[in-house]
Amino acid sequence: MQIKPDDLTHPQVLALLNEHLANMFELSPPEQVFALDVTKLRAPGISFWTVWDGETLLGCGALRELSATQGEVKSMRTPKALRGRGAGRAVLAHIVEVARQRGYETLSLETGAHPDFLPAQRLYQSFGFSYCGPFGSYQENAHSVFMSLQLGRSSNAP
């Protein structure tokens, strides 16, 4: 498994991001979908990585800088047919490590409240993320769950 920075031009990556967006719109009302499209993922302040096994794309994830002390996990996705191989865990560990290297004190995220998001929430909890209120420009809503990790403490990740 190899994690590498990605320029968001590879057809497999674009297909995975399209799958991600489509699924978010299936599970949440349009006004409560906060997943970023390719254009927004290319914005300054966002780093994007992909996880590969040879020529097979296993997943992706991004880190957005919210401030000098806070980052946000974005666009965590594994293709539905390839889940359970550890790609999500690997890219999240990478994002947490980069956030620490950048000196962030807090790493936050927004995910869905729909039951289909429970595996993602469990993954985040296994790294030490805990439930919190909205951060940044997010507002409390019935379709979002907010989590954060204080980076001054050690993670529970294996």
Automatic annotation (TrEMBL):
<dbReference type="InterPro" id="IPR016181">
    <property type="entry name" value="Acyl_CoA_acyltransferase"/>
</dbReference>
<keyword id="KW-0808">Transferase</keyword>
<dbReference type="InterPro" id="IPR000182">
    <property type="entry name" value="GNAT_dom"/>
</dbReference>
<dbReference type="InterPro" id="IPR050832">
    <property type="entry name" value="Bact_Acetyltransf"/>
</dbReference>
<dbReference type="GO" id="GO:0016747">
    <property type="term" value="F:acyltransferase activity, transferring groups other than amino-acyl groups"/>
</dbReference>
<dbReference type="Pfam" id="PF00583">
    <property type="entry name" value="Acetyltransf_1"/>
</dbReference>
<keyword id="KW-0012">Acyltransferase</keyword>
<feature type="domain" description="N-acetyltransferase">
    <location>
        <begin position="1"/>
        <end position="152"/>
    </location>
</feature>
<protein>
    <submittedName>
        <fullName>GNAT family N-acetyltransferase</fullName>
    </submittedName>
</protein>
